[in-house]
Input
Amino acid sequence: MTETFVSMAFNPVYSPVYGGGTLEVHRDLEQINLAEGRYFVVFEGTRRRHVVSAFSNQPLNTCLYAYIPGNDVAEDVHVTLIQLIEESNTYLPLAQCYFRYEYDSTFYLTKFLVSSVYNVQALETLELIKSDRFDLSNEVLSTLDTRLSTALRNTNLTRDWHLLGGDLITDTHCEERETLLHFCARLGLRQVADFLLNQPGSQDALRLCNKHGELPCTIARQNGFHDLAEMLSG
Output
């Protein structure tokens, strides 16, 4: 049987590959009452298939909202709005569109930060954290924390990934370096720090000074990020 879709507007129709943000689905006023039933949005790509719940903007019921999940690669995926018919426990496809996942500067910055743990000099100078695909100095800092933390949570870190790249603090020696926690402290990245503190090596990184003898919590406090400084105090 051929599926017949109703007219509905999806916004936006693209996202960074790490997802985040909200998809809005606006209904055709003449065709569907969003107050009835439960709704889901299916994102179907070549490697991943996500099913997320969609919620109506009650009491108006003119729009549905769904979280945009991440995807493995940049590609066009099918997005389908589905209604659950509870009486018969069946699913009815209502509307469909193409949705584009794209690589952006935050994606490439995240890849750099993940790999920076293997290079003790990678984070020494903020002004030099750039490539032909990203430039930290051009990032909008007011939204960077949310974007980076979302991208990191969607990154498949290897089992042996460690905040110090595998180097452990011992009683005798550990090379002073700028860690990712120092990076967070300089920019006030509380959400990113919260993610990193749950990764291997976080407790070692908390008590590791950079070449200027500064701990991450010290830098956060000096920059006025007092809540973050408390978080990084261990």
Summary: The longest strand covers residues 90-102.
